[in-house]
User: Which sequence fits this backbone?
């Protein structure tokens, strides 16, 4: 019988017959797994207040021979993230994030870097005042980690750099992002190149520094629509918690709102375009 000890985030739990519980985990060493916690609803010794959503656990799992599902033998609470549960806005974004992890990662596909990124995102969410830009950047950074990254600063077809001075440029979900004047067909939605540059910077910068993007609410809304279209095309499913996020977080909470400003960020031409990946949280 194979035994594993790994850190794990609780994605969802379901009560089963008797006093068992089915637990969906995103683990550091095994990727996403489902496991049965036998007697979880009565054993405070093996599961002392641990099996709640968002909890970070030190988990012991076994993979019994001929069984179709793993068994969670015991779990210790490493970090509870209770601030995510006590604030509706934080809770909504955290649910959104956990849904992405649950639906876009493969079972038993270990990705320790993604796991550490996930813990970092929950750390940030536990401390930050939640807003729509934070939700958008969590979505975009996470999907970038999972391989769905739109081209925002170079033509998705020929690779030509798109400067903020380009004004409005075509964005093609089908082609994978922005397309230059030579490659464009004129049939796609036109968006400010400066907004795309700001989003690129948002993917690269720590979430805590997002106010530096100086994106006004209309720009955030435009970016939401753009990226939703991109992800719908490439990922193909709607996130159930998206409506919850939008209903919970009104635009009056978006950072750095400036009356009268449209979509262009103030420092649009200053975005660095080095080879840095979407790594920082
Ligand atoms: Zn081109």
Assistant:
């Amino acid at each position: 019988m194979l035994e594993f000890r790994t850190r794990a985030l609780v994605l969802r739990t379901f009560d089963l017959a008797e006093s068992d519980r089915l637990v969906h985990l995103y683990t550091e060493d095994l990727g996403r797994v489902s496991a049965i916690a036998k007697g979880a609803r009565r054993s405070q010794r093996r599961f002392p207040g641990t099996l709640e959503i968002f909890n970070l656990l030190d988990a012991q799992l076994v993979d019994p021979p001929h069984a179709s599902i793993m068994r969670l033998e015991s779990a210790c609470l490493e970090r509870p993230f209770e601030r995510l549960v006590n604030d509706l806005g934080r809770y909504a974004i955290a649910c959104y994030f956990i849904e992405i992890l649950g639906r876009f990662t493969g079972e038993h596909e270990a990705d320790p870097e993604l796991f550490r990124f996930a813990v970092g995102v929950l750390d940030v969410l536990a401390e930050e005042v939640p807003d729509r830009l934070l939700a958008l950047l969590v979505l975009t950074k996470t999907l970038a980690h999972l391989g769905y990254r739109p081209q925002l600063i170079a033509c998705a077809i020929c690779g030509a750099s798109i400067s903020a001075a380009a004004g409005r440029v075509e964005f093609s979900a089908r082609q994978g992002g922005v397309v230059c004047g030579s490659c464009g067909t004129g049939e796609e939605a036109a968006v400010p190149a400066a907004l795309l540059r700001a989003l690129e910077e948002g993917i690269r910068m720590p979430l805590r520094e997002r106010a530096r993007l100086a994106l006004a609410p209309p720009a955030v809304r435009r970016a939401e629509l753009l990226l939703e279209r991109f992800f719908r095309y490439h990922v193909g499913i709607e996130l159930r918690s998206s409506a919850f996020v939008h209903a919970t977080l009104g635009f009056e909470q978006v950072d750095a709102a400036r009356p009268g400003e449209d979509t262009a960020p103030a420092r649009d031409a200053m975005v660095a375009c080095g080879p840095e990946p979407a790594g920082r949280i």
Q: What stands out?
A: The first strand starts at residue 2 and ends at 15.
